[in-house]
Design brief:
Order of helices and strands: HHHHEEHHHEEHHHH
InterPro entries: Flagellin_C (IPR046358)
Keywords: Cell projection, Cilium, Flagellum
Shape: rod-shaped
Pfam families: Flagellin_C
Number of helices: 11
Protein name: Flagellar hook-associated protein FlgL
Largest sheet: 2 strands, antiparallel
CATH architecture of the largest domain: Up-down Bundle
Organism: Octadecabacter temperatus
CATH superfamily of the largest domain: f41 fragment of flagellin, N-terminal domain
Number of domains: 2
Radius of gyration: 38 Å
CATH topology of the largest domain: f41 fragment of flagellin, N-terminal domain
């Protein structure tokens, strides 16, 4: 009786092992048939996976470049949006300032000055916008706000023109504050990098430079004209009405001419967008090519896999049938 028990246990273990082996084969074949990829790559490739590893590295690198291009594209869109906002403020302020003439009242001059001041504030905010946690218009300095806050700059400008009484003197003082190297704007206005521009990798051997900063002349000139229009309404300066009117009229003309300069900055960003788009198309083509080459290496023959699957399925069904019959065998059943 003990021998019979050992025999039964051994038979049970053999049956269980065979059942597990068939199920494993079945699962592997199902996976290969659904994924189209060989499960045992080492055996399939004859032990040499050098080519496959190389393709995987290329695909990983291309994926990283594709992700970088997506982020850069979003970054450039935000820069274009910021510049469009500045241009909108420029146009609004220009229209308001150009409406001022010799017959304008003090109230009208004050209202136009408010429009210019609001435009100045909004332009500074646009330059200080961030993409995630990165500054956009500060060159390689991605941490600092490119510009000091508008209140700080306007206070410095008020000090620069304090005591001046003629439109020409005020105009020259504001120009000097913005344009002289090491002057007010470079000392107290612009806070970003003054040497380089933001550059982003776009491919294995390609880098895209975003050549726009908040200290570009087009931005300085726009801020300069908005500041002149705003200063004309500053009661603390105690300016004559004719001086205020003259300042605002010239500021309106200056803003009108700034449209082309701002378009130039937008075109520069547009060129970077074009480079990113071209690189993205190229990366997509390369990814498709490498993916096809990889699939050819690891692909499982669907017809062969289906045939093997059918064979293993038949073996498993036969195994279950025999197991069921063996389980019913006993001396009692035989003697009946």
């Amino acid at each position: 009786m003990a021998i019979s028990m050992v025999g039964d246990l051994r038979q049970h273990l053999l049956t269980t092992r065979h059942n597990t082996s068939l199920k494993t084969q079945l699962n592997t074949l199902v996976q290969e048939l659904t994924s189209g990829e060989t499960a045992d790559l080492t055996s399939h490739l004859g032990g040499d996976q050098t080519t496959l590893s190389g393709l995987d590295r290329q695909l990983q690198m291309l994926g990283q470049f594709a992700q970088s291009n997506t982020e850069t594209g979003q970054f450039l869109i935000m820069m274009q949006t910021a510049l469009s906002g500045i241009d909108s403020q420029r146009e609004t302020a220009s229209n308001a300032l150009l409406s001022i003439n010799l017959s304008s009242t003090a109230s009208q001059i004050g209202n136009a000055a408010d429009v210019a001041r609001n435009g100045f504030n909004a332009a500074v905010q646009s330059m200080n916008q961030r993409s995630g946690d990165r500054a956009m218009f500060g060159g390689n300095d991605l941490e600092s706000n490119p510009l000091a806050d508008s209140e700080t700059m306007m206070t410095a400008l008020q000090s620069a023109v304090a005591g001046l009484t003629s439109a020409s003197d005020i105009d020259a003082a504001v120009d000097a504050w913005f344009d002289i190297p090491g002057g007010g704007f470079e000392s107290n206005g612009y806070q970003g990098d003054t040497i380089g521009y933001i550059s982003r990798p776009a491919g294995a051997e390609q880098t895209v430079e975003i050549g726009v900063r908040a200290d570009d002349q087009a931005i300085r000139d726009t801020l300069k004209a908005l500041a002149k229009g705003a200063l004309a309404g500053d009661i603390a300066l105690n300016l004559e009405k004719e001086v205020r009117q003259s300042l605002q009229e010239q500021a309106g003309v200056d803003l009108l001419t700034q449209a082309s300069e701002l378009i130039g900055l937008q075109a520069s960003i547009g060129y970077a967008e074009q480079q990113i788009e071209q690189s993205t198309v190229q990366i997509s083509a390369q990814t498709s090519s490498f993916s096809i080459a990889r699939n050819e290496l690891v692909a499982a023959d669907p017809f062969e896999t289906a045939t093997q699957l059918q064979s293993v399925q038949l073996q498993l069904e036969t195994h279950y049938t025999l197991t069921a019959r063996l389980s019913r065998l006993s001396l009692t059943e035989y003697l009946r």
